[in-house]
């Protein structure tokens, strides 16, 4: 028999979302720690607005979350990736309207300087950030997103660790 949370999830759609693998010139990955989740490191991500492409959403979200969109487009992952929220978050985030996210991932190369990154944005989501070696990213990510990040790292493997 399905639990109440499983039943709720079954009735909810996935949130259309873009994920951004932002790389520095050495092929390291930008990760930031969420203000609302201790040790909750992630790559920038956010909803795709109606009529917006994944690429457009990526640059908008980058500006909203890290204060700069100085980057160049490198690639878009060939497939969307889905994840379900953990049970304790279902009905609590995104106004309770979604069971998880369906993400389009894009890879961007950061063209600015570290001094241009400012996570104290109008609606700050992060309290810390760093460039991470690709082989460390999975260990830093919240557990319910690890499968997604493994898929993303594999999709963009040819872009990583250039330096």
UniProtKB/TrEMBL annotation:
Cofactor: a divalent metal cation; Mn(2+); Mg(2+)
Keyword Hydrolase among UniProt keywords: yes
Alphabetized GO MF terms: bis(5'-adenosyl)-pentaphosphatase activity; guanosine-3',5'-bis(diphosphate) 3'-diphosphatase activity
UniProt key word Lipid metabolism: no
Signal peptide: none
InterPro entries: Nudix_hydrolase (IPR020476), NUDIX_hydrolase-like_dom_sf (IPR015797), NUDIX_hydrolase_CS (IPR020084), NUDIX_hydrolase_dom (IPR000086), RppH (IPR022927)
Pfam families, A to Z: NUDIX
The enzyme's E.C. designation: 3.6.1.-
Segments forming domain Nudix hydrolase: 13-154
Superkingdom of the organism of origin: Bacteria
Motif Nudix box location, chain numbering: 46-67
Biological process terms in GO annotation: nucleoside phosphate metabolic process; ribose phosphate metabolic process
Gene3D superfamilies, per the entry: Nucleoside Triphosphate Pyrophosphohydrolase
Top EC category: hydrolase
Keyword terms, alphabetized: Hydrolase
HAMAP family for the chain: Nudix_RppH (MF_00298)
Summary of the function given for this chain in its UniProt record: Accelerates the degradation of transcripts by removing pyrophosphate from the 5'-end of triphosphorylated RNA, leading to a more labile monophosphorylated state that can stimulate subsequent ribonuclease cleavage.
Family: Belongs to the Nudix hydrolase family. RppH subfamily.
Protein name per its UniProtKB record: RNA pyrophosphohydrolase
Organism: Inquilinus limosus
